[in-house]
Design brief:
single chain; 244 residues; alpha+beta; 2 domains; 9-stranded antiparallel sheet; 9 strands
Amino acid sequence: MSLHQASFRVRHECPYRELSERHPDLTIREWYLSDCQVLEITSAETPTEDLLADVRALGTTLHESADESGLHVVTQACLCSLEDSILDRFERHNALYQPPTVHRQGWEHYTVVAFDEGDIRALLRDLEADRDIEVLSKTAIADEQLPHSMLTPVDRLFEDITDRQLAALQLALENGYYEQPRGTSLRELAGMTSVARSTYEEHLRKAENKLLTNVGALLRLVTAGTATNPLGAEPSPTPEQNAD
């Protein structure tokens, strides 16, 4: 199975569109977190006071370097709602988003990867319905060329795992529960906590299940197109096969 990568840019109303149009030398790189965005803002030009004021108004400044050599600012912002966002559309069309999003001269630049070229085409048609869009490239990716940028942000791996579940997972890991042979037992791990064994085990199993679910998309990408099946396992039936 081949992987298919598409890079494209879109234009629509967004808090960063006006800023990047007003300052054409500006580049904004955007990473999505669970409840906000981290922005890296750069320009090779000496920043004006108007530009600095606009950038500082975006959110909480985490780092700023602004002098005659140019501008480099890292800020945390919560301007764009991710509800029903373009990322939701990527997911609906089985396309994996490769961060960051790059904003420049009023355009948002995205790169996605999918297993099926048809999913890429469907996604682009969906976006054309309400956005100006320009496709920059569409390529097939050999399995051995899977880009390192496919690595998912750490917060995505632990999405929806509660603090208690994370604590149970960390305790098990640090005490050799996942080693072979095991360095400890569930009973011993629960004894290190203030909760019953059944409660501790529930936290641990839920953490394991959520972690594996979150990493599933990356696992499928890593194994996509593998010529041999080292376990000799039968492939899972498709929905069409199940219907038969």
